């Protein structure tokens, strides 16, 4: 039986919750990363790289076995050697693991930053994907409130450099030290136990494992009960009050605006003191564009020595969505049209000199010579350079009035 040549092999489709990027959004994505790289250098944060895959235990210990990320959203599998492996759902745990296993304690306090892809199996929605990308900054080995303040000032400057700080608010809370948090947790359990019969199913499950998370509940049944729960302020030790005061004083001194949100929490027990989110209403329901906090107990959970640490992460896709429409200039610096093939060598020399001098340049040297100028003119560029002959001699004509065009002209005229 002959094969039907008209039958087409079906093209594999992308995995749901992933995306291909080309053109404008890819440029926006790159702009966010480039700005982050520039600002993190200003603050002395070293570039760090950690593996995309880690032993599953790294995230189970750091995120908590009962969290949705671990129980429902991680991409986990056994490799051929039978070891449990997970695609990283966040950066902090892998960086904390690397801090312990590589002996980076010798560099404490260590300021590091990174960016790259992360993976969570969750419902895709605006600005949220199953393979998504984050910026991440951490300070490990410092118990100073100035580390918290510096990270927040870093984040604030990043948003300003990206041009998206308008309409974004820094919300801030303290979770206190261990004594403060334990006392508050006990009071919350007592409060929620008194309303056990009225809580949602999810909050009932959290009551035994993670009662602070009930304060985050979006279920209408839970909101009146959560809103009536005691605040942390009544349980703060004097040391915890002083720590929070030093963080806010640092922000005030740096001119960073902030608002207190006494309901902002982090459910896992290793979080201490500062918790924060930069929020906006410009992304619909997903209002957080950057968030983090102090996690003084995490490295100990991973088998390391007691180590104070604080950090934040931000979704690159969400930041890219907030950029102004005109923030990316996609124009080339110059485009060269070769109108006479006898001058191709001159055009190639001009192309090489422009590029080596830092000018983004393309060349149009194929097709009908008579149509090359019109083809080049359709390419967005500061300078349009035509190379041909006039009166039997090589001739270069340059059009464009911007400063960048004038700079490119000076380079070409020097040939």
Automatic annotation (TrEMBL):
One Gene Ontology term, aspect cellular component: cytoplasm
Catalytic activity: tRNA(His) + L-histidine + ATP = L-histidyl-tRNA(His) + AMP + diphosphate + H(+)
List of residues binding L-histidine: 90-92, 120, 134, 138, 266, 270-271
Keyword terms, alphabetized: Aminoacyl-tRNA synthetase, ATP-binding, Cytoplasm, Ligase, Nucleotide-binding, Protein biosynthesis
Record has Ligase as a keyword: yes
Domain of life: Bacteria
Molecular functions per Gene Ontology: ATP binding; histidine-tRNA ligase activity
One protein family per Pfam: tRNA-synt_His
Keyword Nucleotide-binding: yes
CDD domains referenced in this protein's UniProt entry, alphabetically: HisRS-like_core
Quaternary organization: Homodimer.
Protein name listed in UniProt: Histidine--tRNA ligase
Organism: Sphingopyxis macrogoltabida
Encoding gene per record: hisS
